[in-house]
Amino acid sequence: MILAVLAALALTQTRPDDADMFGGPEEPSVDAGVSAPSVLVPSLPLPSDGGVSQDIDQLNSGPILSKFDSDEVKSDSLKVGASLLMSAQLFWQEGKEFKQGSINTPFILDTYIDGRPNDRLRAFAVGRLQFDPTRPISTGTSTTTSTSDTGSSTVGLTPASATNPSVFLDQLWLRFDVARAVYFTVGRQKVRWGVSRIWYPTDFLNSQPRDALNPFDVRLGVNMIKAHMPIESLGWNFYAYGLLDGINLTGTGETLEQLGGAVRGEFVLGPAELSVSGVWQKGRRPRYAADISTSLGPIDVYAEAAFRSAADFLKFRTPDDLTDTNFLSRVGDIEAYRPSGFFVQLSGGLSWQFNYTDKNTGILGVEYFYNPAGYQNPVEYQVQTFMPSFVGQRPDPIQQVSLYGGRHNIAISLTAPGIPEFPWITVNLSNIVIINDPAGLTRLDVSFRVLTYLTVQVFGSVFYGQTGGQLRFKLSDQVINDVASASEATSPGSGAGVRNNLRTLRYPALVQAGVLLRVSI
Questions:
Q1: Tens of pLDDT along 130-165?
Q2: d(C-alpha 342, C-alpha 309), whole Å
Q3: What's the DSSP call for residue 258?
Q4: Could you report the per-residue pLDDT of 152-208, keeping only the tens digit for each?
Q5: In CATH, what number is assigned to the domain containing residue 502?
Q6: Could you give the number of structural domains in the chain?
C-alpha cells in the first residue's frame, strides 16, 4: 500500500527537462542582438572570502593555453647557424712582373648560437675562425687582426691575422628589458655610429673605422653594457653605454676608474633625423659627435662631425726642402708636436636615386671627408708613417687606417641594384681620390646570388696618380737603406731583415682584383 502511494505521488510531479538539470541558453530579450555562443563549462561561484581560486579562474576562462601556445616558452628557442666567406685577393704593383703579384685567400667562418626563450630575453654568440692557406701556419700572442703592410695594399682587402689559423670571439651578449621600457644588452656586441657611407669619423666606440671598400667587416665586437630607452610616440631613442675595454691596460688587469661611459640621443625632427653623442674614458680625451640625415626632394643628404681634442693627434713640423729621399737623414730637423684646441673631422654627402628604364633604378652618390689631422702632401705621409717610432709617441688609431690619412678626400659612386634583363645582378662603380696626393682608385664591384644561398662578388681596382702618398705608397732606395741602418744601430743584426721587408715598397700600388664567395647556413 505504501509503495503504491509513493508511486502515485511520483507520477503527479512534473519531470525536469535537460535544460533544468544541466543549464541552457537564456531566452533573448526583444531588443537583444545575436547572443554569444554558450560556454560549455558552467560558471562557478566565487569563494566566500572574495578571492578567485586558480581552478575557478581557469574553468571560467575557457580553453587553457600552455606556455608553448602563448610563446612564454618556445619549442625552437635555440638556433645554430654559420656564415662562410671564402675569397681570393690579388695585388699587383707598378714596376713588377705580372707573375710577382701577391695573392692571399682569407677564409672566414662565423658560427653563431641564438637563444630566444621568449620575446623579452635573447642570448647570442658568434665565434670566428680565420685561415689563409697562402700563408704559413704560425702561432702568436696577438688575438686581433693585423697587417704588416704599409700603404694601400690593404684598401678593400681582408688583412691577415697575427696567427694562422686564428680563432676570435666576435660577439657574446645577453639582451633583456625592464618593464618593456628600457632594453639592456650586456657583453661583446656590434655597434656603429655615423651616417656616412665611406668615411666614419664619429664611430668612436670601435677601435678603428671600418674599411668601406671591404665587403666583410673584420672588426670584432665591443665589450660594453648598453641601455636603450625608446620613446615610440616621438620616434626618439636614448642610449647609455658602459665601456668595459680599458685604455692602457697592464698585466694586473683593469680597475674601476678605467671603465668608460658614453651617451647618444637620436631624434626625429620633421623629415630629418639628428643624433648627438659623447664618450668619456680615462686615458682618452672626451670626444663628441653629431650627425644628421634628411631628404631634399629626390636627394638624400647626410653629414656627420667629430669634435675631438687636437692633442689626440700626433703631427710633425718639417723643413720646406724635405723630400721623399732625404727625410730620414734629416730626422733632427723634424719636430713632433700635438696641436692645441679642437679638431672637427667632417664627412658628408648626398645620394640620388633615379630611373634609367621603366623597371631599373640607379643610385648616384657623392661624399667628402675633411680631416684636419691629415697630411697635406705625400712626404708628410711618409714622415707620419716612420717618425712615431723614432720619437717614441703613438699616433691616434684613425691616423693609421687606410683612407683616413689625407686632409681632403672625395668619393663618387654609381650603383645599379639590378640591371636590365638581369635583375639578380648588382653593379657598383666607385672612385675615391685623396686630393692632397693627388691620387685615387677606381673600383668596380659586381655581385649576384646563385643557388638561393650563395652570394658571388667579383671586384677590380685600379690605382693612379702621384706616388708616395697613402694610395700609391712608395719608398725610395735611399729611405729603405736609411731605415735599415737606423734599425741596425738600435738593434744589431736587424738591418738586413728590415731592408728585405721594405724592399717591396719600392713599387707603388697598381691593380687589385678578387672574388668572394659567401654562404649563410
A1: 999 998 887 654 444 443 344 445 577 777 777 889
A2: 5
A3: G
A4: 455 777 777 778 899 999 999 999 999 999 999 999 999 999 999 999 999 999 988
A5: 2.40.160.10
A6: 1
CB-CB contact of 290 with 310 (8 Å): no
Q: Could you give the C-alpha distances from 211 to 158, 180, 239, in angstroms and in order?
A: 9, 36, 25
Cell of 519: 654562404
Closest CA to 288 of 275, 272, 271, 297: 275
| H or E element in which residue 21 lies | helix 18-22
| CA–CA distance, 375 with 470 (Å, rounded to integer) | 10
Task: Note whether residue 421 is domain-resident.
Answer: yes
Which residue range is the domain that position 257 belongs to?
Answer: 78-520
Cα separation of 192 and 204, whole Å?
A: 8
353, three cell numbers: 636615386
Q: Which residues pair with 161 in a beta bridge?
A: 145
Dihedral angle of Cα 134, 140, 143, 146, to the nearest 10 degrees: -50
DSSP string covering 53-115, please? -HHHHHHHT-SPPPTTTTTSS-TT-EEEEEEEEEEEEEEEETTS-GGG-EEE--EEEEEEEEE
Q: Using CA of residue 254, residue 258, residue 259, residue 265, what is the dihedral sign?
A: negative
Query: For residues 253 and 474, what is the distance between their CA atoms, to the nearest angstrom?
Result: 41
Tell whether 172 is covered by a domain.
yes
